[in-house]
Amino acid sequence: MITKKINIEGMKRENPDIIPSLERRDFLKLGLLITGVFAGGSILSATSIVGKAFASTREFTEQYPYKPHYSMVVHQDRCIDCELCMTACVKTNNVPTYGYRTQILERVDRKAVERTREFIPVLCNQCNNPPCVVGCPTKATYKNSKTGIVTMESKKCIGCKTCMAACPYNARYFNEETRAVDKCDFCFNSRLSKGEKLTACAEVCPAKARIFGDLSDSGSEVFRTVHNLEKTVWVLRPEAGAKPNVFYTKG
Amino acid sequence: MAEDVTKTADAAVLTGWRAGTAGVLQSLQGTRGYYAALIISGLLLLAAVAAGVHAQYVGTMHAYGASREVPWGILISTYVFFVVTSTGLCLVSSIGHVFGVKDFMPIAKRAIFLSIMTIVAGFFVIAFEIENPFRMAIYNVISPNFTSNIWWMGTLYGAYMFFMAVEFTFLVINKPRIATIIGFMGVVAGIAAHSNLGAVFGMLHGREFWYGPYMPIYFIASAMMSGAATIIFFTWLAYKVNGQKMDALMKKALQVTTKVGILLISVILFFTAWKFITGFVGGEAKTAALEMLLTGSYAFNFWGLEVAAGMVIPLALFILSRGQNLKMIVTASALMIFGIFFMRYDLVIVGQLVPVYYEMGVNEYSQLLSYTPSAHEILIVLGGMGFVGLTFLLGEKVFGGHKSEIH
Amino acid sequence: MKQISVLILILAVAMMMTVYEGRSIAEDETVGGGEIIYSKPVKSVLFSHKSHAAMGLDCNACHEKIFQMEALSAQNKADFNMKGLYDKKYCGSCHAKDGMAFASDTQCARCHIGTKGFNKAPKQVKK
Asked: What is the ipTM of this complex?
């Protein structure tokens, strides 16, 4: 703190316009202590407290702190936009009509040889470095320490929508009934916590376009797909730095 | 004394009405004009509260123009506008008051008062934007997230508002030395809070238009620019309201504040130019956003409102005025306040109009999004301005024109 | 002179129109049944008569041994699914491994235009 006591009464001064340089120097000394206040917000935000850096497609580390480490592999060439996954999701998780937890995107390349159209399912990527969790002021969204699922605690949501702005994948929407932001939770509340092994969308897909499983189990199909150097596996928007847990492949 | 003022004021009112536009301003000198402005501000404030409550009742996703893809609308940008102005007023007042540059002293007290009123106006606007402000009061305290820029910004602005209010109190009860210490703490809290607000945008890696170290730095410089413009305009307005003439010290204060304005406008012009130039080597999403501002649907907002009205014309007026031609300085300040409101609007909105999946080339997200503020939102924005107007007018009377021994 | 040239002009236009009429019939979109969009068992699959006819297939290539003449009658059958196709039924007659056309377990979205394709299609070609 201030090393020299400022004796206000004892100060000899006639002109109240001038603050003596001695006092000014004392105030400036506070600056060293106070710098922590500036850095605090930004530095804490920059270093993710949510899991250590791991698992984008290129950098494979062997650290999977979650058990089970739920993950999904999407076979982009198998999706036929039947949208049975979207229907199942809505029914299983009471998603309101104005929102959605998963969506199918359509890309058309008229110059493509033979097949010119593809369908891309997108959903919450349950990121390992989630910008939504970093930004939420009240920890209403957090990464579950056991399963790695980015979970909502609706009662704490203040509706600031920072998570909606932060998400690089448009995975979130505001639910007016619960007055909280909602998103895919890999059917944890509706299925996984009740003993089911698969999410509703993965189970109902007729083309096996969504493979859901445990990335920490080296025998699982998701593990064997992601850790296969013969296969091209990617994530959406890797430049966003969110380190997603949903992978995409073909074949 | 008071009767003299009233007699002169009535005559001024009559002359004003005959003179036209200049007359409208002149009429503010009179008690009739004063009460008219007071009532209008009060009505705007009431209309805003009604609109806000109604919006909560019907559901904000219906009442406001925001959507899933564009969650932050004009209420967020107006909040940014008010708190940037508040921080700027605090910084400009601190030049004189905390750091002892004598020439800036005369504007300090009014600037501090306005910095409190603008931050409250900002909180007023955002209280209607947040879905659950009451949950915030509880969970910001018992479940804080220290990695969240929003949390830091909210907490630090709370501390800042407290410091500014205490500082003002000490100035009113004539204890300038303690006020200076508290003022310094207010400056520190203000800069910390404000750069965290910039970081709310700048640390979203998924939003290319906002991402980067630029935002926190730009916000601080931009705050000083806003603060200089606001205090010049409101000082001039105050003297019209109080029906008094500015003395030499106050004129000098406005002159040096003009110099600050010139410097900061130049800084912001420089920042803006380089943001665009470096942005064009970014990805498609970033380029799309920049093009929207330069040549697309927001080109008028950018060139006409932000650049011309907000910066270039005021800069020219400031320089030509030599800090002495009051008409030019005040016109410049008014233009700046107007243009800066749209600077905040464009920043918040354009940053979201490029969909996050834009670069994937899918049918659903190959088009730029759009946003239009709803009537509810506009009413709340006007209410925030009404609040500032109301408290400013009342403050001039209650605090006797913010005169102090320092001045 | 003027009247004769007008007469010749009218005759020429009439001839061109007749010829054009004839050509347009041959290339009409609805020839051989037009675009068919199946919505069962999944939404939805596009079959284009035009692109298949353009490859030289005539009506007998598929009707009536593989598909009935009545449009969309196949989607009411229980074996009208991918397994049926892999068993060389329906489209699988040609779209099979080592078949005449690309195998039905490849290039899925080439025929599956999905719910989006179904919603975009005009009413008369689908059920």
From this structure: 0.87
- For residues C26 and C38, membership in a common domain is answered with no
Cβ distance of B131 and A157 shorter than 8 Å = yes
The mean pLDDT of chain B is 91
Q: Which of A250, A248, A251, A245 is nearest to A56 (CA)?
A: A245
* pLDDT score at B194: 96
Q: Which CATH number, 3.40.50.2300, 3.30.70.20, 1.10.10.60, 3.20.170.30, labels domain A70-249? A: 3.30.70.20
Nearest chain B Cα to A168, which residue? B206
Å between C82 CA and nearest CA of chain A: 10
Residue C20 has pLDDT above 60, yes or no: no
Q: Given an 8 Å threshold on Cβ–Cβ distance, is C42 in contact with A77?
A: no
DSSP B64-87: SS--SS----HHHHHHHHHHHHHH
Site from A2, A37, A110 to mutate, B interface, most B CB atoms within 10 angstroms: A37
- Three-point CA angle A215, A218, A222, nearest 5°: 45
Enter the pTM of the model. 0.83
- CA–CA separation, A7 and C37 (whole Å): 90
Number of domains in chain B: 1
Question: Which chain B positions have a beta carbon within 8 Å of A237's beta carbon?
Answer: 206, 356, 359
Strand A180-182 vs strand A173-175: parallel, antiparallel, or unpaired? antiparallel
Q: Tell me the shortest Cα–Cα distance from A130 to chain C, in angstroms.
A: 31
What chain A residue is nearest to C44 in terms of C-alpha separation?
A82
Q: Which residues between 14 and 53 in chain C have a beta carbon less than 8 angstroms from any beta carbon of chain A?
A: 41-43
Residue A136 Cα distances to A238, B146, B385, angstroms: 21, 9, 29
Say which residue, B367 or B7, is predicted with more confidence. B367
Does B374 reside within a domain? no
CATH number of B210's domain: 1.20.1630.10
